[in-house]
């Protein structure tokens, strides 16, 4: 599945993307805010990420900025039996709205895929991610749960959010190619 936003191409990853992924994510400040990524993040981790099998119900994407290449990733996963969104952006591109743009695309794709509810979370020492989630319609649940961070090697407080897609009308008509 591919999706185009105003500035980004959301596309699947392939093994040959591993060097670009490693270059974009190879920063402890990024990886420490992710639950599943290890630190240090090496070439074998990038290859494993680039080679992950896609599930059409919960796809994940590389974020490609035309003329610049891979600047991050965004996608769906499962957390405690619910559909969760997640994202990361290379440090060079922080503060330019790319996380918000990619997250909006995920919300639209979630609706297109028939999901009625999405969840998300951020480690409490990463409030910028909470701002992104609120901008795209997620509401804090009021819960803070412990979630393991591979990069930190420890359970870390994670603020939880949810978005009921059934309560919203679609913002755009999606045209997706599989």
Tell me the layout of helices and strands.
Layout: E1 3-4, E2 9-11, H1 18-25, H2 28-31, H3 43-50, E3 60-65, E4 69-79, E5 82-89, H4 98-112, E6 117-123, H5 127-135, E7 139-149, E8 154-164
Antiparallel strand pairs: 1-2, 2-3, 3-4, 4-5, 6-8, 7-8
Helix pairs in contact: 1-3
Brief synopsis:
With 178 residues, the protein is an alpha+beta fold. The protein has five helices and eight strands; from the N terminus they run ββαααβββαβαββ. It has a single domain, classed as 3-Layer(aba) Sandwich (Aminopeptidase), CATH 3.40.630.
Strand content: 25-35%
Strand order of the largest sheet: 1-2-3-4-5
Q: Which CATH first-tier class would you pick?
A: Alpha Beta
Terminal CA distance: 4 Å
Calculate Rg over CA atoms.
Answer: 15 Å
Within CATH, the superfamily carries the name: Gcn5-related N-acetyltransferase (GNAT)
**What fold name stands as the CATH topology?**
Aminopeptidase
pLDDT < 50 runs, ≥5 residues: none
Overall 3D shape:
globular
| Number of domain modules | 1
In helices, the fraction of residues equals 10-25%
Task: Please outline the major beta sheet.
Answer: 5 strands, antiparallel
Number of helices: 5
